[in-house]
Design a protein that fits this description.
Elements lengths: L9 H13 L11 H8 L3 H13 L3 E4 L3 E4 L11 E7 L9 H14 L3 E8 L6 H9 L4 E5 L15 E4 L9 E6 L1 H14 L4 E5 L5 H14 L4 E3 L11 E5 L2 H15 L3 H4 L1 E6 L14 E4 L2 H17 L7 E4 L2 E3 L17
Parallel strand pairs: 3-4, 3-5, 5-6, 6-7, 7-13, 8-9, 8-10, 10-11, 11-12
Antiparallel strand pairs: 1-2, 12-14
Length: 348
């Protein structure tokens, strides 16, 4: 019956889940009648009843035949009232994924919060049944903490508990708190970097299907276009010294640079003005990703901030999602960061 997410009862189920998670329906309160719900969502009473049965199976409500459906008190015994957080991630291998650096910050911060417990560690790929699996984890937790670009593949997220996303661009209509490097700070730093090198035209490369990378591109365009021209062409054969290449992520630069190396047997960054965002090539083992100058952030610190936000959302029913942008620093190829303060570019 969980497949109802993708059927007529889906909107009703998501609405009731979000109301229960946010405190819109309090323990002991009766849900709207089947007739009211059926009319409100344009479904049959049978579908409305199926939705309530799903909520009852999850221990969220109690169906009292002849009386109605009532919200249950989900408070746990005093000895087990720690906030249960499910961390959903793409990978914990520090040799392969930047997620491991974010998770290290999450673990460190969790150890400092006595009322917080990482209840589940879930390695979840981008498969077809990801939403159903995510829903199952959500119903066993007080909050979901998503590490990685899950918004590229999920059309929605479960609304039975709050959610926090690291390196995601979609908040799913205000349900998910978002944490990432500051794209405005990154754009200002990038513009300063290119201008200092006499660049007047940029080739912009980004992942069009990724909400976060699309936003980075749009902000970079708005920041750059007052100073120079740009296009979104690949342009492997452009050797003009007044031209630069901007990449919305290190993985995108790696693909581009490896293709260039295969074509010309040369290191692209050695002869061109190239800059990527995120700096993942500098925290993964040497050679995992090809390097160019990069704008990055402190991923470990971002993990700590994500845990704090997850804890805030879980202990305060109805607490709104918020966006947290972390300051950036510039990494020059084969050098240490020029600036690690996280302050806005151009400000002292």
């Amino acid at each position: 019956m969980s497949d109802i997410y993708g059927k007529k009862g889906g909107p009703m189920l998501r609405y009731l889940e979000s109301m229960l998670a946010s405190g819109g329906f309090q323990p002991g309160q009766a849900l709207p009648t089947l007739r009211t719900l059926a009319e409100q969502f344009g479904v049959s009473r049978k579908v409305a009843a199926q939705v309530q049965e799903i909520l009852a199976e999850r221990g969220l409500v109690e169906i009292r035949h002849g009386s109605g459906t009532y919200v249950l008190n989900r408070r746990r015994p005093a000895e087990d009232r720690k906030t249960r957080i499910a961390v959903i991630h793409e990978g914990l291998n520090i040799q392969q994924s930047y997620c491991a650096h974010v998770v290290a910050g999450i673990v460190e911060r969790a150890a400092e919060l006595p009322d917080c417990r990482i209840d589940q560690w879930v390695l979840l790929g981008f498969q077809d049944d990801a939403l159903e699996k995510l829903s199952n984890y959500a119903h066993m937790s007080d909050v979901l903490l998503l590490v990685g670009g899950y918004d590229r593949y999920l059309r929605e997220v479960p609304r039975c508990c709050p959610a926090v996303g690291v390196e995601m661009g979609s908040g799913f209509h205000g349900w998910v708190s978002l944490l990432s490097l500051d794209p405005f700070d990154a754009a200002e730093r990038a513009v300063q970097h290119f201008c200092a090198r006499g660049v007047r035209h940029l080739h912009l490369q980004s992942n069009a299907i990724d909400p976060l990378h699309s936003e980075r591109r749009d902000i970079m365009i708005r920041t750059w276009q007052r100073l120079g021209t740009y296009d979104e062409e690949t342009a492997y054969d452009d050797d003009d010294p007044a031209h630069g290449w901007w990449f919305s992520g290190g993985t995108g630069y790696d693909r581009f640079a490896r293709e260039y190396q295969k074509r010309y047997n040369r290191d692209f960054a050695a002869g061109h003005h190239a800059l990527s965002l995120d700096g993942k090539a500098y925290i993964l083992p040497e050679g995992a990703l090809m390097k160019c100058d990069a704008i990055t952030t402190d991923w470990h610190r971002l993990g700590r901030a994500a845990l704090d936000e997850a804890f805030r959302r879980s202990i305060t029913p109805g607490a709104p999602a918020q966006r947290i942008l972390q300051g950036c620093s510039l990494l020059l190829n084969h050098s240490k960061p020029e600036n690690t303060t996280g302050k806005k570019a151009g400000k002292k």
